[in-house]
Design brief:
CATH architecture of the largest domain in chain B: 3-Layer(aba) Sandwich
Strand content of chain A: under 5%
Order of helices and strands of chain B: EHEEHEEHHHEHEHEEHEEEEEEEEEH
Strand order of the largest sheet of chain B: 5-6-7-3-8-9
Largest sheet of chain B: 6 strands, mixed
Order of helices and strands of chain A: EHHHHHHHHHHHH
CATH class of the largest domain in chain B: Alpha Beta
Shape of chain A: globular
Number of strands of chain B: 18
Structural class of chain A: mainly alpha
Distance between the termini of chain A: 36 Å
Strand content of chain B: 25-35%
Largest interface: A-B, 35 and 43 residues
Number of helices of chain A: 12
Oligomer: heterodimer
Number of helices of chain B: 9
């Protein structure tokens, strides 16, 4: 056993009211985060026939349905891009968001046995659900390459910005996920709200249609087009399309607003989570 | 770490829990279900909305000390460990811990049945606070200790429960914290497993680490710990050498037969009819020889004339588990201004040597489900079953892990002998 210097003691007392996200504690438990992500990924497709193919099938089949109904039948514009390409790029971001949201919202309640038996920074739990979604995204990603080849569409230099949009997506999912996870501990209503929320949010997000269509409507009413960006997923989806496909409708204003709201949701979410996590073990 | 430096200091630690709606037991069955979870809590009257699980608990533990924490169910033992392991926050007060803390509140925390033994070692290790490099270093040792080499790449859902427990304990046992908090881990598993756990615990203790050990197993507490803390109703009742504290605790479980039964009454009970006295009939009121019938003298009072009253009774072991329940077929009636004296006689019950507590109820109506309880008292009288010294070797040396009933009515006969 290593002999440690008489370090400062671990002090346990009732909440002092000082709020922090607790990054340092979180960082020292990064290996746990890694193992939980790994467990989620490992277990998720156990005893399924198609296994990880589900990660591809979900956005792919959705893109197919969207193409048939919205692209063909409704004739929704797609910024001059082939509609399937347009839809799939948006759905990559959307599926990551919707899955991450659903999984992390349920994560704390699903880990009640851990929370009541052992200490670790509780944020690790919803975050691991969010990160596990990255693996699904990585699996579904190559299919986009197939689409690109099929439509002979070559990505431009914007592709270099893609990691930044991936980060924005992570921030958005983590922010909303952490809020819902914490709320779900006390109010199990969240369980019923989430599917509904995801459904509504899909229509509020430019996945089926381009953001430019809404921007035009807003401007006709005399409102600024960047209002669309208040929904951080608008920035994410448009950012995915711009960086991957060179779609033109991402405006700096919209992006800036999305970044700000995503950050605001994430920071408030983390702080709210930290404030209520003290009682998780007693309530869950 | 020098052996006399401080490891844990607790100052006025308190924890208040908010109760939901006040519970009323409609049936004995409900009361028993809840009693099995926390048998001695409903006995006290707590009509308030909050309950202090811990109240102003203070103690200091030095490095290298192995301290047992004992007390009835609901005395605050688990709450104390949960606060010290940072699972839940105290309502007020403060604790300081000097050194790396590891807590072991159940065996198999974080195990996932779909994952293999190997995968679970890493997962569970990480959850308990081990680093990856540390787990890798101890991996072979863990596998060897658990004796699961052949099945290490099999999902643990295919393990026998014994293998599962061994592996889970092995991971936890290889945590090397300076301060180890252990709760009732030894309550699971077979005798062999418990022996292993105790062995590992005593080796941990002899390595000079600090251990706080919650247990209902008084034998384990006295053999592993030099010091014990007796918690009672959330407060430190006694703190001192384990031999003395355990002896006083056991004596107290048996004593106090004249205590007011109201302390043991379930919430909202005892309105129309009440058990006003309950004691064991043998003259000293607390010891029963193994195999002898149990005779309880009861006194019941009622505000009105009631017909068809019957008695129900459950026997609880020292850990609060219900050993068995009876309902009498005979009935009696009450009248205002009269005290009914009853003798409840239980024979043919081979209760193993040890400490027990009775739960008593007065009810009327149907034999089981239709029965309406008028009074429920849980925790009194308490008694001790003493082994008969000479006649039966097995009973004299009865082990807790064999359960609470000595099955005596059994036989073995040779039905034939054939050449193979």
């Amino acid at each position: 056993m290593t002999v440690s210097a008489p370090a400062a003691p671990l002090v346990i007392e009732a909440g002092t009211g000082r709020l922090s996200v607790g990054f340092r504690d979180l960082w020292s438990y990064r290996e746990l985060l890694y193992f939980l992500v790994w467990r989620d990924v490992k277990v998720r497709y156990k005893q399924t026939v198609l296994g990880a193919a589900w990660a591809i099938l979900q956005p792919l089949l959705t893109a197919l349905v969207f193409t048939l109904f919205f692209g063909r039948l409704a004739g929704i514009p797609s910024e001059g891009l082939p509609y399937p390409l347009f839809a799939y790029a948006g759905l990559l971001a959307w599926t990551f968001f919707a899955q991450g949201l659903t999984q992390s919202a349920a994560s704390l309640v699903g880990s009640a046995n851990l929370i009541t038996k052992v200490y670790f920074p509780r944020l690790v739990i919803p975050l691991s659900s969010v990160f596990a979604g990255l693996v699904d995204l990585a699996v579904a990603f190559p299919v986009l390459g197939v689409f690109l080849l099929f439509y002979r569409h070559r990505p431009g230099p914007e592709l270099l910005c893609f990691p930044a949009f991936l980060l924005l997506a992570l921030l958005t999912v983590a922010g909303v996920g952490v809020w819902l996870a914490a709320l779900n501990v006390e109010y199990r209503d969240v369980r019923y709200v989430v599917p509904f929320l995801v459904q509504l949010w899909l229509f509020l997000t430019p996945v089926i249609y381009p953001a430019s269509a809404v921007v035009r409507q807003l401007e006709r009413l005399g409102l600024p087009g960047w209002l669309v960006g208040i929904n951080p997923m608008a920035g994410v989806v448009e950012g995915f399309r711009w960086s991957l496909l060179g779609a033109p409708s991402l405006t700096p204003g919209l992006l800036a607003v999305s970044v700000v709201t995503a950050a605001a949701v994430a920071v408030t979410g983390a702080l709210y989570f930290r404030r209520v996590e003290r009682s998780f073990a007693d309530v869950v | 770490m020098s052996s006399d430096s401080l490891a844990i200091r607790a100052e006025r630690l308190s924890k208040r829990y908010l109760l939901g709606e006040r519970r009323r037991y409609r049936t004995l069955r409900e009361a028993l279900v809840s009693a099995a979870r926390a048998p001695f809590r409903p006995g006290r009257t707590e009509p308030r909305e909050t309950i202090w699980a811990l109240r102003d608990v203070a103690f200091e533990i030095r490095h290298g000390e192995v301290v047992g924490v004992i007390g009835r169910n609901g005395a605050g033992k688990s709450t104390l460990l949960k606060i010290l392991s940072r699972i839940t926050e105290p309502t007020s007060g403060r604790a300081e811990l000097y050194g790396r803390v590891g807590s072991l509140l159940e065996v198999g925390t974080g195990f996932h049945s779909e994952l293999t033994g190997r995968e679970n070692i890493y997962l569970s290790g990480a959850i308990l606070g081990m680093h990856r490099a540390e787990i890798e270093r101890k991996f072979d040792e863990i596998v060897a200790f658990a004796e699961v080499e052949r099945f290490i790449d099999t999902p643990v859902k295919h393990y026998s429960s014994g293998m599962y427990l061994r592996l889970a304990f092995a991971v936890a046992a290889h945590l090397e914290p300076e301060i180890l908090l252990v709760d009732e881990v030894l309550a699971v598993g077979d005798a062999e497993f418990q022996k292993r756990c105790l062995g590992k615990m005593s080796s941990v203790a002899s390595e000079g680490r600090t251990v706080l050990f919650v247990s209902h197993n008084m034998g384990a507490v006295t053999s592993l710990c030099r010091r014990a803390i007796h918690l009672r109703e959330g407060c430190v009742y006694e703190d001192g050498s384990s031999g003395r504290v355990v002896a006083n605790y056991l004596a107290e479980l048996l004593d106090g037969g004249d205590e007011d039964l109201a302390r043991y009454r379930a919430d909202g009970m005892g309105k129309e009819a009440r058990i006003v006295a309950a004691r064991l009939l043998p003259p000293d009121g607390r010891n029963v020889l193994f195999g002898d019938p149990l005779v309880v003298e009861l006194a019941v009072e009622a505000e009105q004339a009631l017909d068809g009253l019957s008695v129900g009774s459950s026997i609880f072991d020292v850990a609060g588990n219900c050993v068995g329940t009876l309902f009498t077929r005979e009935t009696f009636s009450s009248a205002p201004g009269f005290r009914v004296r009853l003798n409840l006689r239980v024979a043919g019950l081979s209760l193993a040597p040890g400490l027990y507590q009775l739960g008593l109820s007065i009810g009327r109506g149907g034999q089981h489900s239709g029965r309406q309880d008028l009074d429920i008292v849980i925790g009194r009288p308490a008694f001790q079953v003493l082994p008969i010294a000479s006649s039966d070797e097995t009973v004299a040396d009865w082990q807790r892990t064999w359960g609470s009933i000595v099955i005596r009515d059994c036989s073995l006969s040779v039905e034939g002998r054939e050449r193979r």
